[in-house]
Amino acid sequence: MAANTTRRHRSRYRLSTIQLHYLGNQSTGKCNVINMAAADQEPHASAVRPRSYHDKGHLHGFLGAVDDLQKAGVLQDVILEVEGRRFPCHRLVLSAASPYFRAMFTSDMAESRQKTVVLQGLDAGMFGEILSYIYSGTLHVSLDKVQLLYQAADLLQLDYVRDTCSSYMATNVECSTCVDLYKFADVFSLNIVRKRGLQWIDRNFAEVSSGKEFCSLSVNQLTEIISHDELVVKEETTVWEAVVRWVQHSREDRLHHLPSILPHIRFNLLTPYKVLVISDHPLVKEDPGRSAIRNVVKTSNLKRRVGMDTMEMALICARRNRFDPREGNEVLWMNPGEGKYIRCDYNISPFEGTVTSDNDIYVLVAESRKKISLFKYNHVGNEWEKKSTVRKEPENVQTTDLTSDYLMVINGHLFCLTGTYSVVVLKKYNQHTNKWHTCSTPGHDGRLAGFAALSCNQHIYLLTETELHCYDPKEDHWCKKTPPDNSPDIYSAVALGTEIFCCFYTGDDLNKTIVYDTEADQWHELSGRLNTVFDISNVVLFVLENKLHAVVEGEIDTDEFTDVWRTQVCVYDRCEGVWREISVLPDRRWNLNPLMLPVARMHLYLNTSHADTQVAANPEGAHAV
Predict the structure, then answer these.
(1) Which alpha helices (H) appear in 137-190, and where do they start and end?
(2) Disulfide-capable partner of 442 in 307, 375, 469, 472 (CB 3.0 to 4.6 Å)?
């Protein structure tokens, strides 16, 4: 029986070495039988026609199946114990996801043979989040756990989790978090987060140094901060007062550090009287080395800080035909409350702009009727540098639709929204490739006449005649929000905190402002109206030094035939609920584009080849010279 079976297998093997090749000869009907290669000879690639197929759903399906096995508790072969909590897992899955576990389970370590492995130095809650990510591919991050999550990922060598946490921290640096995130980044050498934290501390030093978190800084971190030239303070006494609060927070432990701290305070920038007051301060008198400290006070010769020579100012352009380069390009940097105006003449005329948290100023410029370009301001040279072309229409394409462009920034990323009466396109700028990438489009009703767009609370908002749309840049997704009642034409809109302030045109009324709360998704009317001695023809809202301002333009009635135009600036007093006039702009017609007043910290002594410093006009009407 065995012999017969063997012969049958051999017979099959011999037959497999012979291939029939039919030579098509329909006229003769003949065919030839050809004995091909032996069994060990590989067929030619063209004969077997190899091709690879990629199952796009395999990876997602495989990961989902693994997650299902974990949830069902099937095939688990190891238990990880963290802070007393037990986590049944799969060695293979853990080893594939983490080099830390791969080394643990594939080496001769004792853990490779243990059924239960105890992990030290991890938070049980964060390890649960890590396991959820390993099995599902989804990572949940929030401010209250991002630091513990980063530490766990750092120990387990999970690069994606570590990089995601680092990016998340960098994009969530603000006044309330900058000190804490700076300290964490300093310990773990997260350069981007550390740099961003220091920038926020520098630019908001007066506010940040008054908080409790500031007093938790180490002496090295404190001296690093107060030694910065970029510190935004109007007077050096602000730095001294911050040091005093830091020392008094733990006087016994910190007083001996005072001699090493004081050399970083720029006493030469203080008046002799203030230096005398500091020399007689109780902290200085109590310190054993007070004679050395007094010597530091006398010999200090450090340069002025940036904040002493900068001021938050808004940019406004002279009215002109933006498509005609032959007209002038005068702009005005202004802080009406401080009575400061700086006139400059550049080689461009911006019509839209925005400012990043790093104080980088970007504007849009119409280089022709068909070409819109992005320019960035050079603070050192007081000049504009072209970065990219935002859009360029073919010369042979004719359109009757009016186009509006809005430039916005979210977490340091630039967005440009371009719209006509019926079409909206949103693009995101990649500074590394210098290219714009198209984002998703809102599902609007097509009625876009008189629309406006702006960024607020880490989102982009598009206001139309009938709808309000909200864009989430993290999800690249639009959704609808509650529009205002009886939506009229939008004249101007600006964001302040988590609120959007809008000025609408309702019949003959242009002095009413309504407010949208982005967190509550609710509208209400702002108390108080703009009252002027002239009929208001245009209003532009902007935020300067964290206060709501309005540039108001109108024609004054006179007995003469010549039109007299007046442009004044008002500030809103939220405590009193009233608008107050604070200044009149220097003589000339200004281009009051609804969103054209970007606000940035500006050097008060700009390059004199471009600048002409002006004094303010007073509310009674004495115009600048």
Answers:
(1) 146-156, 159-171, 178-188
(2) 469
